[in-house]
Design a protein that fits this description.
There is one protein chain. By secondary structure, the protein is α+β, with helices and mostly antiparallel strands. The chain has one domain. About 20% of the residues lie in helices and about 35% in strands. The chain is globular and about 40 Å long. It starts with a strand and ends with a strand. About 25% of the residues are buried.
Length: about 140
């Protein structure tokens, strides 16, 4: 069976990282988790990556610069989520499904994080069982 290399590049502050995986010859959905389409910017400091399985998360982590959180989605605590998601002063936490509206905010950090994951799911179809939040 012939193999081809799928390369994805992530540009961060003039440094380019490459993440390669071997894929079978038949066409598949891309599995390069460091593509910009597999992440969402939570704030000016943090970027969220979603992974469907633990092994994918572990294999992508060496290519990230400053990982501040890496765990299963069900293990994320409210206090952790609040420190990474955007805050709308006086209203609550950012609703990433409606980024331009400050009226439909979320009351908790976990709910806000879930809306960010919903945006990722809409763009690439990957379910998120594990998440990584990177600073930078």
């Amino acid at each position: 069976m012939q193999m081809r290399i799928c390369m994805a590049f992530l540009l961060m502050k003039d440094i380019c990282f490459a993440f390669a995986t071997n894929l079978p010859e038949r066409p598949l959905k891309p599995t390069c988790y460091l593509c910009p389409m597999n992440s969402i910017k939570l704030s000016s400091y943090y970027r969220l990556y979603a992974f469907s399985d633990y092994q994918s998360m572990k294999s992508a982590m060496p290519y990230m610069r400053r990982v501040v959180l890496a765990k299963g989605l069900q293990d994320v605590e409210e206090a952790e989520a609040r420190s990474f998601v955007g805050r709308v002063s006086g209203r609550g936490y950012k609703n990433y499904l409606e980024p331009l509206s400050s009226h439909n905010t979320k009351s908790s950090g976990i709910q806000s994080l879930v809306t960010a994951l919903q945006v990722l799911y809409k763009s690439n179809g990957f379910s998120a069982r594990y998440i990584v939040i990177e600073r930078g």
